[in-house]
Write a structure and sequence with these properties.
Distance between the termini: 95 Å
Strand content: 5-15%
Structural class: mainly alpha
Oligomer: single chain
Number of helices: 5
Number of strands: 3
Length: 139
């Protein structure tokens, strides 16, 4: 037979659960710092309870940046490498920032893939945009 635990105040327990399900709101400064990290892929979001439509908050993991991003991105020392339950409205905004960051990085990679570095550095362009030489080294 299963053991039951008596609850003294179910109302306060329900209030705590609702507060937990709503998640926390970040301050403007915290949101901006998280958004910068999210843009570069250092934030992972997952719905807190994907099976419950009433819960729209997110579980947010912040991975600390390393290398060059760590020297350039302004982060709170206590925020990276943390897990937070984030408010649904702010979570949706951070998800948009993540999507935009991915789109921008893909666009940049595609532009680099199409770029002709050799011609840019070793062939002069005249004002009309045509090559200054005829391709055999003579002009």
């Amino acid at each position: 037979m299963a053991k039951t635990i008596p609850l003294q105040d179910t109302g306060s327990l329900k209030n705590e659960l609702r507060k937990y399900q709503k998640g926390q709101k970040l301050t403007i400064q915290e949101f901006n710092r998280v958004a910068r990290l999210a843009y570069f892929g250092f934030v992972v979001l997952t719905p807190l309870d994907p099976e419950n439509d009433e819960v729209d908050s997110y579980l947010m993991y912040i991975q600390p940046p390393e290398g060059l991003p760590a020297t350039q991105l302004d982060v709170y020392e206590d925020m990276p490498d943390s897990i937070t339950i984030l408010d649904g409205e702010q979570g949706n905004a951070i998800a948009d920032v993540i999507r935009q960051g991915v789109r921008d990085r893909v666009d940049q990679l595609q532009a680099i893939n199409r770029r002709e570095f050799y011609f840019e550095y070793f062939y002069e362009q005249d004002q009309s945009g045509s090559s200054g030489g005829n391709g055999d080294g003579s002009s």
